[in-house]
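look at this fold:
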Amino acid sequence: QIHALLMTAPEPMYTDEIMEKLQISRGNANTNLRELVGWGLIQIIHRKGERKEYFQAEKDVWKMVITIAKERKRREIVPALEVLKSCAERTKAESKGPGREFHQQMKELQEFVEFGIKVSDTISSMKHASALQWAMKLLG
């Protein structure tokens, strides 16, 4: 809700305004604002002569999607990939039965995740229009 409010707000907002508009507590507002800042989805704005922190969301949807993709990769995908690699490495000596099957599953999942990372990185490095053209070719 906070992110949606800030995305649609014409001007940066401060915490009390956000709390009032969304009817949420200060703790809820502060926790979620810090999380959104941590994800790089909103920025803190300081106005000269004021002590209040104002918050502003990225308005460019493409930049927002790329930011989310990069942050999810860093927080979720790369750690999961490391677990898959570790499982595959620890079971590579398995020569038959369930151990061998497990090893093969881990290797296949690892390869799939690595492929997904390459696709995501490629798309993230493209300009919006180029990515749309690429997607249309892929889907067409």
